[in-house]
Amino acid sequence: MGLEDLYRDSVKIEKPDGETLGPVKASVQKRKIHLQAKHPLEPGDVLIREMPFGKPERYVVDEPGYSPGLQGIPPHFQADVRREGEQGSNAVAAGGNKTPVDELPPSVTYNIYGPNARVNQSSADHSVNITIDTSDSVFDDLRSELFAQVDDAELREKLSSLVDEMEKAKGDSPTMSQKLGQFISTGSNVMGIIGPFIPMLTGIASGAG
Question: Is residue 35 helix, strand or coil?
Fold first, then answer.
């Protein structure tokens, strides 16, 4: 079982000109949709999930979040989305009257990737990087889940060992991705437990090194 086997949903991609692509396999979460990189995805595209009852859910893409994939992990998107129709902070009511939210400072969203990323807004860069690595917590949390929920002692030991190896290899992208592929394959029977951690581990492997 691979990463794409975690995709339990299906979405279509609607382009601004009305063109519809897909469907593609996906995992729809709050404010985030993970999906196969089968078609181009750009800010402003709409992801449509058909529902068994009622109208389809429509999500506007703010940031595609493309990941080129790694060994054993195909290219995919980790898109930041919002429900279609949600108003931004600068929305103006009909007739040109400002709503109270317009009196607030505009909202700015930064999507920052990599362990030493920096942001400059209308300024020269005279900063010094201070790196705070919080990725360790995902390994600790994953170990806790394995010991709490995996009853098979032999499987638990194998998975825990692979978690240790992934943690040691998080600065080495090829090795980290290889160990992650082994972890997914070994834990195929307990995907309900390890599945929620896979996107985070994939992101760590993508940004390793």
Answer: strand
**pTM, whole model, 2 decimals?**
0.48
For 200, the enclosing helix (H) or strand (E) is: helix 198-206
Whether 197 and 142 have beta carbons less than 8 Å apart is answered as yes
Residue with tokens 């449509």: 48
b/e code 130-158 from CB counts within 10 Å (16+ = b):
eeeeeeeebbeebbebbeeebeeeeebeb
β-strand 46-49 against 9-14: which pairing, if any?
antiparallel
pLDDT of 64-119, one tens digit each? 988 876 666 788 888 999 999 876 433 333 444 444 444 444 555 545 444 444 55
C-alpha 136/C-alpha 87 separation (Å) is 36
A 10 A CB-CB count for 75 gives: 12
Cα–Cα distance between 56 and 53 in angstroms, integer? 8
Q: Distances in Å between the alpha carbon of 148 and those of 92, 143, 152, 164?
A: 51, 9, 11, 17
Q: DSSP code of 204? A: H
Whole-number Å distance between alpha carbons of 96 and 176: 54
